[in-house]
Specification:
Blueprint: H1 5-20, H2 22-33, H3 43-49, H4 66-70, H5 92-122, H6 128-142, H7 151-163, H8 168-179, H9 183-199, H10 203-226, H11 233-236, H12 241-252, H13 255-275, H14 294-305, H15 311-315, H16 323-341
Helix pairs in contact: 1-5, 2-5, 3-5, 5-6, 5-7, 5-16, 6-16, 7-8, 7-9, 8-10, 9-10, 13-16
């Protein structure tokens, strides 16, 4: 067989879910086309990459996510779904570019669901129930990120990164891609391996896997030096860090802030703690008892680097680290509860 059974099932599941979940894509496309949510518009950047006269280059850090935008180029060939009441001054090329980015985001979300289930089955030893729970959790948690932007490709890369924790070459390749796809991938794994290096006995392995992350950061820095672009004000002056933190704190105390910042952080932190209830030492190197520290550390990064109501979605990028252990813990609890409720069926 060219493909293993779990991989073949994963591919078939991806194809099936891509069709079954199409209403999610239609909703996402409407959000993107009608600008229901204020977000960064990568469509002009996509047009720039293909040499279209309407194209333009955004500032930093958006322009350095070039591979994520380039991945949407093939989807421009798809037929454009038309909607009424779109702005009359939008060109067909611009609309096609926005749709292509929406297609990419949708497919990356579906792929993340499949990778989560595949990792639960092949890396954490989950049965059918745990595999389903992992995929279901991934789908639910993916709604916390900016699917209408370029968060979904980053989430998929992080999910693949978890799969690749048993292979240094594969993980290294992912970090190289991530450097020019989305810097948040480097941040998540950089924090994870830094914590493992400091707090876990198996420091040599953590150091080996931290090196590709550092190399990815170096590549990102080289791109910034080779193609300098305007930065946001708080990125240029360290004196703006404290005001940025205070602004994020104030925004988080509003009703919108509680929903968009506080709640997602609490959800992913609860997942991280639930993951610790299973025997993670049996599933090294895919999980560790100290991985939960990534959440508060990523929160600190988000409070410094992000703007107002983006803290929650940035911290939510850590959830792929915990999906497998959480699915396994839930599966074990459900099976134990079933055995106690129906002792005659216990094996």
């Amino acid at each position: 067989m060219l493909l293993s059974t779990p991989l073949r099932r994963g591919i078939l599941t991806f194809l099936a879910l891509s069709i079954v979940l199409y209403p999610v894509f239609i909703t996402l496309l409407r959000v993107v086309l009608f600008n229901t949510i204020i977000t960064d518009d990568y469509a002009p950047y996509l047009l720039y990459l293909i040499g279209h006269p309407e194209g333009s280059v955004p500032g930093a850090p958006w322009a350095y996510r070039v591979l994520s935008v380039a991945a949407a180029i093939p989807f421009r060939l798809l037929p454009v779904i038309t909607f009424s009441n779109l702005p009359g001054d939008w060109s067909p090329a611009y609309i096609a570019a926005k749709q292509a980015l929406a297609v990419l985001s949708y497919l990356c979300m579906v792929a993340t669901v499949c990778v989560a289930g595949y990792a639960a089955a092949t890396r954490f030893g989950c049965g059918p129930l745990g595999t389903f729970l992992a995929g279901a959790l991934a789908f639910i948690l993916a709604q916390y990120i900016a699917l209408y932007s370029l968060d979904a490709p980053a989430l998929l890369l992080i999910s693949f990164g978890v799969l690749a924790l048993n292979s240094l070459p594969a993980f290294s390749a992912l970090m190289v891609v991530s450097a020019l796809a989305n810097e948040k991938v480097l941040i998540v794994f950089g924090l994870m391996f830094a914590v493992r290096l400091l707090l876990r006995p198996a420091r040599q392995r953590a150091f080996l896997f931290l090196f590709p992350v550092i190399a990815g950061c170096a590549l990102y820095g080289a791109a910034m030096m080779a193609f300098p672009l305007p930065l946001m004000e708080h990125q240029q002056n360290l004196g703006h860090l404290l005001p940025s933190i205070m602004m994020n704190v104030q925004a988080s105390l509003t009703l919108r802030g509680l929903l968009l910042n506080v709640l997602p952080v609490l959800v992913v932190f609860a997942l991280a703690l639930l993951a610790r209830t299973t025997t993670l030492s049996k599933h090294a190197p895919y999980a560790s008892q100290v991985d939960w520290l990534v959440v508060p550390l990523l929160l600190c990064v988000a409070m410094v680097a992000s703007v107002t109501l983006n803290v929650g979605r940035i911290v939510m990028h850590a959830f792929p680290l915990f999906i497998g252990p959480v699915a396994l813990a839930l599966e074990q609890r459900i099976q134990n509860q079933s055995a106690h409720s129906f002792p005659g069926r216990a094996t």
